[in-house]
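Quick one: structure for this chain?
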Amino acid sequence: MSKRLIIILLLSLSLPTDLLAEPVLLTGEIASLEKQIVSAPRTDRWQIQIQWMHEEGTIANEGDLIAVFDSGSIKSQIKQSEERLAAEQLVLKKKKLDLQQAVVNAEGQLKIANLEVEKAKINASVVSTDVSKYDKGKYQLDLERALLGKIRAEQNLAVKIKEKELELVKQNINITKIQENLAYQQKTLERASVTAQITGQVTHMMHPWNGEKITAGSMLQQSMKAMLVQGQGSYRVQAWVHEIDVNKISEGDTASLKLDAFPNKQYQGVISSIASQSEKKEMWSNSAYHRLYLSFNEQPEVELLPGMSVQVVVEENK
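Got it. Here's what it folds into:
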């Protein structure tokens, strides 16, 4: 090894680590602390079409309609559920009448059985000197039959009352299931028309399958993100750091921020959070990236809009 190389190595070892550290360069964008994410609603279908979207880049006011998803099949399901509910409620009314009538009939049979017992008791109470042994035996047998008939009538009444209770409970359960399903479908229909919960700029999301902007007519899988509304004011910078570089920076590190729209101005910020879990960014590469957020030391005096590109330079502190 040459003396010159040895000297260079010794010098490099003696230099402070902060002088050797290289800054981490990131590309970020302006993001709002206040945001609303619009996702495709859950339905019984694998995909749903978005029929209309608020124009990208424009400001949506709180309460404005910003997205409409296909609700044709949902409306059809609601109509079917309403028809089923009406039919089952009619069945419930009929069952109430029929089962109550069965109970009334059983009560009538028990009354008759009680009368038969009373009659048989009277005949059986006649002294043997007034009737023959044959008639006496016949009256006693009639009493036993009447008592047995009464027991059967009592059992039949108990069965009819129980049947009435069980059948009505079962029918009410069927109706409750339909009502719950109908409520879910109506809620899904409400989610098919999305209104802005905040006032802010509208951004259409990128389709994860084809990498194109989601527009009216796009087919989306349920829960897929379709639109982002970002509130005005309280802006911060959102950036992504490669998994290789994530250990070079930490929360609290300072950074220089330069807006592409205002290249002659530079601002200071600090890393406020770094995601512990990395995410795949297929549009960039097969590598994984960590999302991080930076806050401005002082909010810029220029007009900021969500999505503005920001150049981020983080000085490595390790």
